[in-house]
Amino acid sequence: MRTVVTPSVDTPEPQPGLRPVRLPRRWLLLATGVLGLVVLLAMVTGPAGLPLRSVLVEMVNQLPGVELDGGLDEREAAVLWKLRAPRIVLGMLVGGMLAMAGAGYQGVFRNPLADPYLLGVAAGAGLGATFAIVSGGGRLLVPLAAFAGGIAGVAATYALGRSVGGRSTTSLILAGVAVAAFLTALQTYINQRNVESLREVYGWILGRLLTAGWGEVLTVLPYIAVSTVVLLAHRRLLDVLSVGQDEAGTLGVPAGRVRLFVVLAATLGTAAAVAVSGLIGFVGIVVPHIVRMLAGTSYRIVLPLSAVFGAAFLVSADLAARTLISPGELPVGVVTAFIGAPFFTLVLRTSRRVW
């Protein structure tokens, strides 16, 4: 009697980037705890020191129906809610957005060194802000001009990239380099023609978190909120893209559409952040890589943790910027560059092990 053996069909092992991954609760609690500690330290530290216990009581008293004794007096409350709190919240929004944008760019371009300024956002925003400053546009016009310049820079990059290479990632990156070089040359020309404004221009370029109440926070909040929702909604698709564009296509994932939405969302949020903070570098490189090294490479982990750790990182950098040479103040971009430059070297040496 002849025996027919039917070969067993085993379920293929899922690719590392496709395994169902959830954000570990311990990492979310750790990130939230770090952010909370940094925020408290930033609230009580400054030229006008505030007692920690009184700050905590003051925050609890903001809850409906709560009125505890031992809070801040009128002057201290004005320092907290009109000066420090808006600056801290702005730092959280900008830091979280830049870190998420960096992670998004690194995902769609599959490049561990991609950052939020890759596609000409920084150069366009710098040109727009420079034009507004030298024309005497004032505090209101500079953020609007920077935002418009950042969006225009990315639009020019996309138009040039598609005209020479279709949807090729390499063509898009090279187009960003070319557009950034051209816009930077225009900015340099304007600066040389208006040397009396150089100090203000370079102060903006080096990055700062200066607020006059809650106006800047309310200005960028809608753009950053929309960008955050879109990026988080695409975190699973970024995991699929990590196995390769062709493989993603066989799984039914429209790689071109995913790339477009992620780049647009990251660019919109970055342009809004840059408009109110100036050019703050290295956040989009440092934070996502720290998250990858500590918690894992899945974008279901990287994106949300990058938002929280990015907020904590920039608030910490801003705290250092306003206390290291007190009563003077360093540009926060100098502090992030001081931390990010050595880390950039570390990334070059270890990117193969964490990517």
From TrEMBL:
Membrane topology per record: Multi-pass membrane protein
Name the GO cellular-component terms.
plasma membrane
Q: Which Pfam families match?
A: FecCD (PF01032)
Where is it localised? Cell membrane
Q: Name one GO molecular function term.
A: transmembrane transporter activity
- GO biological process assignments: siderophore-iron import into cell
Task: Give the top-rank taxon of the lineage listed in the UniProt record for this protein.
Answer: Bacteria
TM helices/strands, residue ranges: 27-50, 88-105, 117-134, 140-160, 172-190, 210-233, 260-287, 299-321, 330-348
Give the record's keywords alphabetically: Cell membrane, Membrane, Transmembrane, Transmembrane helix, Transport
Do you know which PANTHER family this protein is assigned to?
ABC TRANSPORTER PERMEASE PROTEIN MJ0876-RELATED, FERRIC ENTEROBACTIN TRANSPORT SYSTEM PERMEASE PROTEIN
Query: What family name appears in the similarity comment?
Result: Belongs to the binding-protein-dependent transport system permease family. FecCD subfamily.
The name under which this protein is listed is Iron ABC transporter permease
Query: What organism is the protein native to?
Result: Phytoactinopolyspora halotolerans
